[in-house]
């Protein structure tokens, strides 16, 4: 199990710092956003070069580097979405009478450009590392993409605890597409599949050697984090308290009061009665708008 400890610590710390940094940049005045995105784009270019350079390498250091580079690319997508540069054609709240396929179509239109951009990034990373021994970057980005989709579908279907405290003001319309309700069978299925995937990756990491073992261990750590983040959607605990340091520059109501700001009529446009809660910081940041 010691083979999993360091990758788990590395992935957790890097995720925590990267998420907080994105939130901090997003809380700066809007006049700084273009410069932040340009800086993130330059960093992403170096990250892509790092992925290509480490793809032929088989050592553990190359796996760690590829993982970090993939997170830089993911951070660019987070930033571009939260700042409103890459979202979707629909930027309006959900109509109160929207149901079924219409509600899904409208919700998807709020972030479809973002989703397409992430999928294209998956294809680019996969093409750049095709046939190479170090697949850590590809595996990392694919897992981030899939785990985020799982969180998005679960929040759309309905979970017990939601809030918008980490959502930028200009993205608050997305809260109207949330549902606050008991967890569905889809949530149970999602958590089961995530658990199975984590167990498989952990077993693969313990059975492999060198860089391959590290790559699997980092992927295991990422899936464990996703499991925890999904769990936050059904427990009444504000995990966003972890990122108050990054949100200190926001000018609206203090974090502690955001729970009361969630309007159940917005969060539950389909007629279900709701209870206020909170949206998981990493897994729902994009769904919410974290």
Descriptive account of the structure:
With 290 residues, the protein is an all-alpha fold. It has helices spanning 2-27, 33-54, 60-82, 100-109, 112-128, 136-157, 185-207, 210-232, 258-261, 264-267, 281-288. Helix 7 (185-207) runs antiparallel to helix 8. The model is unreliable at 251-290 (pLDDT under 50).
Which secondary structure elements does this structure contain, and how are they paired or packed?
Blueprint: H1 2-27, H2 33-54, H3 60-82, H4 100-109, H5 112-128, H6 136-157, H7 185-207, H8 210-232, H9 258-261, H10 264-267, H11 281-288
Pairing-aware structural class of the strands and helices? mainly alpha
The counted number of beta strands is: 0
Biggest pleated sheet: none
The rounded distance between the terminal residues' Cα atoms is 30 Å
Runs in which pLDDT lies below 50 for 5 or more consecutive residues are 251-290
Strand coverage percent: under 5%
Which of globular, elongated, flat, extended, rod-shaped describes the shape? globular
Helix content: 55-70%
Keywords for this structure?
290 residues; mainly alpha; 11 helices; globular
Summarize it.
This protein is an all-alpha fold and 290 residues long. It is 63% helix and 0% strand. It has helices at residues 2-27, 33-54, 60-82, 100-109, 112-128, 136-157, 185-207, 210-232, 258-261, 264-267, 281-288.
